[in-house]
Amino acid sequence: MTSTVEPVIDSHVFRDTLGRFASGVTIVCGMDGEEPVGFTCQSFYSVSIDPPLVSFSVMTTSTSYPRIRRAGRFSVNVLAHDQHAVSSQFARSGTDKWQGVSWHPSRQGDPVLSDSLMWVDCELYSEHEAGDHLIVIGRVIELCPEAPDGREPLLFFRGRYRHLSSLPQD
Q1: Can you give the pTM of this predicted structure?
Q2: What structural domains does the chain harbor?
């Protein structure tokens, strides 16, 4: 829906305001030929149970996502509270994001991070332009086996990595 009056929203205020919403941290991965590709992503969520759909958003300027899109499939790895270094590593451009990262292929060949809290493997279902981002929807075709190990998720809140026990009580 389009408004007739464009509000003036300061981008820094917008980011700070939405930073008060705690989000999980994921690594979206795929294969470009024989090479694994991935990037850190905070905007991941469930869309539908029937069919099983998930979604993430990625900047239109991403250099990693077009390489994943070509394959038409991807995995989403939810990080555990002790994986902030992995998140930071995959958030950087121009570096070897996979250095020191242990992974194995899903049944369809997408990278699954060995120590992730959980993962889903998807086929590209649809893609929608939304401002400076793309909204990507994937149909889940494989889930991680249940692993009740008691670890907490890695969260991003107020511009910092957190885990459940470190969230301020205010």
Answers
A1: 0.87
A2: 11-164 (2.30.110.10)
